[in-house]
Design a protein that fits this description.
- By secondary structure, the protein is α/β, with parallel strands linked by helices.
- It is 41% helix and 16% strand.
- The strands form four sheets. The protein has a seven-stranded mixed β-sheet with strand order 2-10-9-8-7-3-4, sandwiched between helices.
- Strand 7, helix 8 and strand 8 form a beta-alpha-beta unit.
- Helix 5 packs across helix 10 and helix 12 runs parallel beside helix 14.
């Protein structure tokens, strides 16, 4: 089997890469190491690039539909990895999961409807309901045994009157893998309250050794009835710029409502390279993914060891899935603004600000992206340690 080099450092500057080229705009200086935007600095897989190259050789980029090969690759991946037994009739291409969630809110709810999320959470989950005229309802997670967990008493109180629960599964920003028991309990509550669940499972393929991702729709008949599941090869194979995602809806009535809306507005027809890349990734990506996850596991271990020896005051929630870690610097006794200043202007590192994941409750917290060569990660950690000690 081919061996891939994840230690390779690739210069992404000057490619209109948001992660690197938006630093001046977002952080006020361009000389930072970006550990924020959730894509990886690893080279996109060769089999994906070769598939795109073969398609470019044809030299006609006209309107394109998903091939039968694309649908076979998607359905086989879902069945093998997540026990989702489906045909293409239960699936719909989506040009990105954030867009897909926005479409679902517009299609399935009305202005003023209440939308539930659990915080801290990926910022678009907070912004999409508000930007579409819906009412955002937040149920804060609590930390138990070093992991974020759902406070089910609070969750059931706040879900009253809500139309939709947007769930991050696995959880972003901290990579918690929700187990089957937790998901079944969520399903029972949502079924009793007649709530639709949008399950964002974009990080499912990035589940690390010792953990197993459970797709929400598979835990019960109720979950299958009331849920939309979004998945994508974008995080897994570092092809987020292609906007290639898929939505799975098992229930016929719910599928008719949502897919009918998508088809009526023709907002999810896809593009040549999104289909080509996804087919190659799902059909040929097992070996590359295993090697990448092994490397990522090493980065998680390196972060854990570094924090214990050099920054023991940091309270970290390390990922069980994904390449994202949640770091709480509160024990250093600095204000949130002081920490931001040290990270940006002394450590010269760009991290995601914790307050963007749910407000002031997450002051002094930051999200760190581990999807990079280990030498870069260790260099960044040394600079952070020097800045906050």
């Amino acid at each position: 089997m081919k061996q891939y080099n994840f230690d390779e450092i690739i210069d992404r500057k000057g490619t209109d890469c948001f992660k690197w080229d938006a630093l001046q705009m977002m952080y006020g200086r361009a000389d930072l190491t970006p550990m924020w935007v959730a894509d990886m600095d690893f080279r996109s897989p060769d089999f994906v690039m070769e598939a795109i190259g073969r398609r470019c050789d044809h030299e006609v980029l006209g309107y394109t539909m998903p091939s039968e090969g694309y649908w076979r690759a998607v359905t086989a991946w879902l069945q093998k990895r997540y026990c989702i037994h489906t045909t293409k009739e239960n699936l719909h291409f989506i040009p990105g999961i954030v867009a897909g969630i926005a479409y679902a809110l517009l299609a399935l709810t009305e202005p003023g409807d209440k939308i539930l999320v659990t915080t801290p959470v990926y910022p678009p989950f907070l912004n999409l309901p508000k930007n579409s005229g819906r009412e955002l309802v937040c149920s804060p997670l609590h930390i138990t045994n070093g992991r974020f967990a759902i406070d089910f008493d609070d969750f059931e109180r706040r879900i009253e009157g809500c139309k939709v629960f947007i769930m991050s599964n696995p959880h972003n920003p901290a990579g918690t893998v929700w187990g089957e028991e937790v998901l079944r309990r969520v399903a029972d509550i949502c079924e009793r309250h007649n709530v639709i669940v949008i399950s964002d499972e974009i990080h499912a393929d990035l589940t690390l050794t010792g953990h197993k991702h459970v797709s929400y729709s598979t835990v019960s008949e109720a979950a299958q009835r009331h849920s939309l599941t979004f998945m994508a090869p974008s995080k897994t194979f570092n092809i987020a710029g292609l906007g290639s995602s898929v939505c799975y809806v098992a229930d016929g009535d719910l599928r008719k409502r949502f897919f009918g809306w998508l088809n009526a507005l023709e907002v999810a027809n896809g593009n040549i390279f999104a289909f080509t890349a996804a087919e190659a990734a799902f059909a040929e990506g097992e070996g590359w993914l295993r090697q990448m996850l092994d490397y990522l596991q090493g980065n998680v271990q390196a972060l854990d060891e570094f924090l214990k020896t050099r920054m023991p005051k940091v309270k970290a929630v390390l990922p069980e899935a994904s390449y994202l870690a949640w770091l709480d610097f509160g024990a250093y006794g600095m204000t949130h603004e002081q920490l931001k200043d040290k990270l940006i202007n002394e450590a010269r590192v760009a991290l995601n600000d914790g307050t963007t994941f749910g407000g002031d409750a997450y002051r002094c917290c930051f999200r760190l992206n581990l999807g990079c060569p280990r030498a870069v990660l260790l260099d960044v950690l040394e600079r952070i340690a020097d800045a906050v000690r």
